[in-house]
Every structure is written in structure tokens, then in C-alpha cells.
Amino acid sequence: MAQPPAWRRLASTTSTFTAKSAPSKAHLHKPILDDLFPRGYLLGGVHSGVKKDASMLDLAVLLSTSSRPTSAAASFTRNAFQAAPVTVSKAVLDQTAGRARALVVNSGCANAVTGRQGLSDAWAMARATDALLAPSSSPNSPPSSSHASSSSETLVMSTGVIGQPLPISKILTALRPHGPLAPHTLGHGFAAWEAAARAFMTTDTFPKLRARTLPLGDGRTYRIAGIDKGAGMIHPDMVGVPRPSTTSTSTSAPHATLLGCIATDAPVAPATLQSALNYAVQRSFNAISIDGDMSTNDTVVLFANGAGAGIDGGELSTREIDESRDPGVFVRFRDGLTDFMQELAQLVVRDGEGATKFVTISVEGARTYEDAHKIASRISTSALVKTALYGEDANWGRVLAATGSVPLSAPLDPARVNVSFIPTDRSPILPLLVNGEPEQVDEVRAKEILSAEDLEVRVDLGLGSESAKYWTCDFSYEYVKINGDYRT
């Protein structure tokens, strides 16, 4: 008689608690008013044939139709096996000095570790999408070059199984000028953005889409919208994120996790846009973890097309925002972008494969932000911490062990460390460790806090004033099931 899968045998025979299923995430996706979406963009999503199921969308495009120049910035994975779309998108931004007007995304195949053919296919996707753009004589036009691919204004993203070639002929058929993604078939409201978001999805259980207004002061209000995807193979590379000079035109980018596309109708200079993204990504997408694994395809792109300039803020709003010239406006833009990206990033954690809990890891009292960030990351990736969270076991010693394993800029003093569980219903916190001394823990109260879907674990190092947050989830039997037979 055939044995049941290992995950089911474990769940049924070795567990001392009832295995929990991931809660429904349907409530996290809801309609958005059309007027909240940025002006000057057309989007759509279709089934092109990358995925076998014809009911599932697998190809999306975003086109900027603004008469003003469109700036683009991006963050890419640091994985040594960078996928072909990553290589192509980096090349486009380098060649255009941060000016791009389009994005093409496929799901169902990562086009990663696919050699020369993969690069050729990614460039083919870029050039086919270029053909959907209206001709432009604006400063957005890239410099001329003899290289066949250097005239592209399109960034490329792919997600899915690694090591398999794209069905490129199917994708190019869908991208033909009179095909299902031709500009006249695209839209600019909620329905269009939602279709694009669905085309991003792999193991995601809902399309991740948000939009809001972005007030920048002096009567200037713009709009910002974003799509991201991810439910597994989620964790950023935290080492050596560059912070380029604000006066540089370099498009050298830091590195993020998952796939994300954010668009605003604010006018922002390319180097300034990249600087804002560098800051925001470190505090959003670089502060989440589901399973501690970094993908070959991780990319977050940000467009700013200026189409909202002059509409709400008069002449003051028509000039591109420059970090050195407009520091106050830049900080408001950067901070608004960061808050928006944190909301998008948290949607990924809430949709973590098999996740039953959304957990905020707060590290306070650090000497430096980098110290706090590294400890929060380490706690978030600890399998022992994550399995204890799933089992609703107040095993806070695992939190301490993870904390103490991280090299810091100054030695940690165990006698100053505090650890607490923070409930999200605003009921009293539960101290676990106070100034290095263990508390007599109320196990019933601890179980109440850990049984909630949302909770916070707070660690105070007692060394300084810097802090950082990370968002993570638990490890469940369902996570093993999903990833044990992902390709089938």
C-alpha cells in the first residue's frame, strides 16, 4: 500500500498539536477607485501560453504614455545566477541613464540559468514591447548605438521555474502590435491594473495591488500604484547595499527580493528616483523573509512619468524633483514611497506559502541601523523561531540564540537585553526577558498572544537609539507540501 506524503505522515503521527491550515487571504484584495491610479500609464494582462491552464494570466505589460520624459529605477537580486531578464533590465537602465517607458513581465517560467538562449529571449521580449510604444522625440529617447539591443526602452521581468526555456514564440505572438496587448486593448483603471497583477502570480493566492495619492506639499499631489508578487523563495541580500551620490547619473542599483512594479505620475529626475528607491527598498522589500531563500530573479522597478505635473500643483509641479535642489520635497517623496512599499512588501509576507501568522520582528536600542537590521533578519530566518511560532510555543530562548549569533559593530551586553511579545489588540505586552533576567512567563497569556494571526516580537538591545523592523511568517507543514512538489 502506498505511503502518504512525508508531510502528511508528520502532521498526523508526530505532532503534539493540531496542524493548522493557512487562513484565507481573499480579504487582502479589494477594488480600488480608478482615480487613485497614476495618470499616463496603460496596462494589461493576458494568457499567452506560458502556463498550461488557459484560465491563468501569464503575461503583462505596462506602457508610459506621458508626453514628459519617464524616469526608471530598479533593484536587482545579488544572486550569482542572475536570470536573463535581470541582465537585460540592468543593461537597459545603464544604456538609457535611467530612462525607460515600458515593462514586460511573464510568469510560469523564470528564464533563469538558460544560457545564451535565455538572454536572446529576454531581449526579444524587450524589443517586442518597444514596438507597442508610441514614437518619442523627448529626452526619454535613449542614446544611439550600434548594438542591436541598446535602443530598448523596456525593462523585463520573469518568474516561475528555474532552468527551463521560455516558450518565446507564444510570448512574442501575444506582444505583436495588433495582438491582445496592443495599446488600444490596454486600460488605466482598476481592471487593467488587476489583470496585470494576476499575470505576475505564481504560487500567490491573491493579486497584490495597491494605489494611493502622494501629497508632496505646496499643493502638489500625485498618484502612486504598485504590483508585487511572491509567496516563497523570499529573502533579500542584506550585504553592501550601495547608496550612490545624489548628484550622480549612475543607475547602479541595490538589491531587493520578489517581483514588484511601482509607478507614479510625479516628475522625478532619474538619479533622484534611484536614490529614493535605494532608501525605500532597504526598509520594505529588504526587510521581509518567508523562507530565507533569495531568488535568481528578484527585481523591483519604479517609474515616474511626470504625467500628473501641473494638474494639481500649478507651475511648481512641472519641474522634475531633484534631491539636491529640492531636499524637502525629495524627503516627502522618499518617505511616502517607503510607506507605500512597506504596505506592498507586507502583502507578500501575509501570502507566505503555508503561512498562518504575520509576525513583526522589532529590534530596538541598537548602536546602528545596520546592527538592528541584521539581528531582525537573523531572527526572521531562524527555522527554530519560525517553527515555534507555528506551534504557538513561547520558546523565547530561540529568539535570544538568534540575536546573539550576529556580529555587531559593538559587543552585545546580555545584561541590557529585553525581549517581549507584543499583542496587536493593544492588550498588555508580555515581558519575557528584562535586563538579561528571565521573567516568570505566564504560559496561558503567551499562548493567547501566539495564537493570533498577527503579533510582534520585540528585542531591545539597550545599546543605542537605532531600530529596525522585519516582517516574517511561520513555517508550517503546508510550506513543505507546496515546495515538495512545486514542479508538478
Explain what this protein looks like in three dimensions.
It contains twelve helices and 16 strands. It is an alpha+beta fold and 488 residues long. It folds into two domains: 325 residues, L-amino peptidase D-ALA esterase/amidase (4-Layer Sandwich), CATH 3.60.70; 127 residues, Ubiquitin-like (UB roll), CATH 3.10.20. The strands form three sheets. It has a seven-stranded mixed sheet. β13 and β14 form a beta hairpin. It is globular and about 70 Å long. About 6% of the residues have low confidence.
List the domain count as a whole number.
2
CATH architecture of the largest domain: 4-Layer Sandwich
What is the H/E order? HEEEHEHEHHEEEHEEHEHHHEEEHEEH
CATH class of the largest domain: Alpha Beta
Count every beta strand, where a strand is a DSSP E run of 2 or more residues. 16
Going by CATH, the homologous superfamily of the largest domain would be: L-amino peptidase D-ALA esterase/amidase
What is the CA–CA distance across the termini? Answer: 22 Å
| Tally of helical segments | 12
Please give a quick description of this structure:
The chain is α+β, with helices and mostly antiparallel strands and 488 residues long. It contains 12 helices and 16 strands.
Give the helix/strand layout:
Elements: H1 6-13, E1 41-46, E2 59-64, E3 71-76, H2 84-96, E4 102-109, H3 115-130, E5 154-161, H4 168-174, H5 190-200, E6 208-217, E7 220-229, E8 259-264, H6 270-282, E9 288-289, E10 299-304, H7 327-350, E11 358-366, H8 369-381, H9 383-390, H10 397-404, E12 418-423, E13 430-434, E14 437-438, H11 443-450, E15 454-460, E16 466-473, H12 477-484
